[in-house]
């Protein structure tokens, strides 16, 4: 009499593993983790631009005056382009920043930034820290040289966000490097 033991053969196990692998790959493609990570970074940017704008507006209300930033690098520039002012990159500290030098000037994609004066390209708004916001946020992409520019890297004073005051005297805060071509800005 033959001794017959129930169980799986090697071929059956390999087929099951192949099916599980195929299903896992299909789920991974369907979930698209890169897009999810980019969506998460953009969500954080939305939160951070709102936090910065709310902090500036709350400081203005508490002080009963327009907040023009620190005296070393005010956030309102008098120069204008087509009736609307230049944008300025928000920095944690403007010491050593010279806007006329690519090595020390911050960069912001898609924004018209004035690089003609010593500090015209930056907005030093550290006066809102720590009372109205615990710290100035840095873009979720973190520290890194701005590609192909040589400009001041993110995280080294450069927050990755910009400030713009419209000719209607509204403040706009936005992200310099959003993912997926998104436009992330709030204006009030």
UniProtKB/TrEMBL annotation:
Annotated keywords: Membrane, Transmembrane, Transmembrane helix
Residues that span the membrane, as ranges: 6-31
Pfam families listed in its UniProt record: N_methyl
The name this protein goes by in its record: Type II secretion system protein GspG C-terminal domain-containing protein
């Amino acid at each position: 009499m033959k001794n017959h033991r129930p169980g799986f053969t090697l071929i059956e196990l390999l087929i099951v593993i192949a099916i599980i692998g195929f299903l896992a790959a299909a789920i991974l493609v369907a979930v698209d983790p890169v897009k999810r990570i980019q969506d998460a970074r953009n969500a954080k940017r939305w939160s951070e631009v709102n936090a910065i704008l709310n902090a500036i507006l709350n400081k203005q209300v508490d002080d009963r005056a327009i907040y023009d930033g620190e005296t070393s690098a005010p956030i309102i520039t008098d120069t204008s382009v087509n009736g609307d002012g230049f944008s300025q990159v928000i920095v944690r500290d403007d010491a050593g920043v010279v806007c006329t030098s690519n090595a020390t000037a911050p960069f912001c994609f898609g924004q018209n930034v004035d690089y003609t004066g010593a500090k015209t390209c930056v907005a030093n708004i550290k006066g809102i820290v720590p009372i109205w916001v615990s710290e100035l946020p840095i873009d979720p992409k973190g520290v890194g040289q701005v590609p192909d520019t040589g400009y001041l890297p993110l995280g080294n004073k450069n927050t990755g966000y910009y400030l713009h005051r419209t000719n209607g005297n509204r403040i706009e805060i936005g992200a310099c490097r959003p993912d997926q071509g998104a436009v992330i800005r709030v204006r009030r």
